[in-house]
Amino acid sequence: MKVLHVVPSLLRRGGGPSESVPMTAMAQAKAGIEVAIAFLDGSEEVSLKTLEAERAGVRLVRIPGASNLINPIGFSLSMARRFGNVAKDFDVIHTHGQWMFPVWWAAYVSRKLGKRLVMMPRGSFAPVRLREHGWKKRLVGWIDRHYANVADGVWATAQSEAEEIKAFAKHARIEVFPIGLDVSSYAVAETRPKGEKILLYMSRISPIKGLDMLAEAWARCGSGMGWKLVVAGPDDRGYAGEIKNVFARKCKSGSYEFRGPAYGEEKIALLSQADAFILPTRNENWGIAIAEAMASALPVVCTKGAPWRCLETERAGWWTDASEEGIEHALKKLFATSHEERLAMGVRARRWAERNLDWSAIGQTMKQSYERICEGV
């Protein structure tokens, strides 16, 4: 079986898909699928996971083009000309994301060539995402709805996203597959020092991530509690400067620190040095950063904008309302938790990740889904 993944971008600063699409491809390759990834390749560096996937035998199909302010939908004449010739050799075309030319064109070509089409919207149909650039999505939304309805499979990362997809495209044939991890690659500190404690945020610096709500909550309860907030991640279209000004106005100097993006070993090191993790997101179809924090044995504070109820059921953190008050309430609970209990929460988080996020099992399940789709079941 041959599967061609199509994603608009795999830039190093591109966030979750730049990590999880290559990881998905590697897991499928280990399951015995012949896998390739087609993406728009601009002048910037691709993610380390993309390079790792290439070394592991995943073929990369680099197509000239890029999404930017002048070309927000990522139109690529090269893709329009070349993609059909690439796609003809594959059994399944598997797209990632929505609202972009590479996804539309891949879906169109798959239908034209009679290939099986699997789509993974990755949160694109969540109500909060539909409101972003709402005029654009009202204008072109019929394209995304049509292909989601006629696709052979639409994959959600959680049941909550499956419900959002069904509300947008009522005829979509939905399956749920979590984004996995190589849990063993994440370091777990044997002990954590009892001095100043670090609360780590590590994700894109973007309005959707809720850093403005975190700033308000941190101003109210973070200063003077023996904790320091470390914010790490790539800037999303200049938002880092704006949110830094918010923190400077509202929060005590020295109680927080902004770092740039962290990749590879630097990312693993930051996670291993932290005492807890936070993602105050307004909306997340999955949230690979949470999975990485749990694999690193960290207790986690996450809002209900992401599907991580297991933080409560596994007693591995706090799953709170996506509001300033909800985040403040969870932070106060974190600050009141003893060093020993935080370590125990981290152990429970790691064990949950080992049980539920192992790529080898997920890759085999994905292969079975492709086989059913190809057989028309």
Q: Globular, elongated, flat, extended or rod-shaped: what is the shape? A: globular
Number of strands: 13
What structural class do the secondary elements suggest? alpha/beta
CATH class of the largest domain: Alpha Beta
Number of helices: 15
CATH superfamily of the largest domain: Glycogen Phosphorylase B
Q: What gyration radius follows from the Cα positions, in whole Å?
A: 21 Å
The SSE order reads: EHEHEHEHEHHEHEEHEHEHEHEHEHHH
Strand order in space, largest sheet: 3-2-1-4-5-6-7
Helix content: 40-55%
Distance between the termini: 16 Å
Total individual domains: 2
What does the largest sheet look like? 7 strands, parallel
CATH architecture of the largest domain, please?
3-Layer(aba) Sandwich
CATH topology of the largest domain: Rossmann fold
Strand fraction equals: 15-25%
Poorly predicted parts: none
Structural features, described:
By secondary structure, this protein is of the alpha/beta class. The protein folds into two domains: 2-180 and 358-374, Rossmann fold (3-Layer(aba) Sandwich); 183-356, Rossmann fold (3-Layer(aba) Sandwich). The protein contains 15 helices and 13 strands. The chain has helices at 16-30, 48-55, 77-87, 101-113, 127-131, 134-150, 159-168, 211-221, 239-250, 264-273, 288-295, 310-313, 324-335, 339-356, 359-374; strands spanning 2-7, 34-41, 59-64, 92-96, 116-120, 153-156, 174-176, 197-202, 227-232, 256-258, 276-279, 300-303, 317-320. The strands form two sheets. It has a seven-stranded parallel beta sheet, sandwiched between helices. Strand 8 (197-202), helix 8 and strand 9 form a beta-alpha-beta unit. The chain is globular and about 60 Å long. The model has no long low-confidence stretch (mean pLDDT 92).
